[in-house]
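Exam revision sheet. Question 4 asks you to relate a sequence to its structure. Input first:
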Amino acid sequence: MEQIQIIEIKDTVYEETYAAHIQKNGAKWIGWVPEVPDVKCQENTQEELLKMLEKKLHEALVAEDEAWEKQFEEDVKAGHLDTLREEALEDLRAGKCIDL
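Answer key, structure tokens:
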């Protein structure tokens, strides 16, 4: 195996940059994104690997975003955020908020 290279991958939708780790392993290239454990793959060329890492990173970010939104909606429906809502309204009524 060759030395690990670190390549920045930017997700244009979420406007975040991630460090992809890539390495030549025999005839193949392997890669992964440590910050997003589900993102790892193997391809024949470095170019194919980088394209696939970018695609898998975006898919993982979308899935994470959708899971977060679903959990938030469930928490709202279950009333888990009611206390925070009441505290915010009390602060608003007490003049503790600044109009942005």
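Marking note for examiners. The first strand starts at residue 5 and ends at 11.
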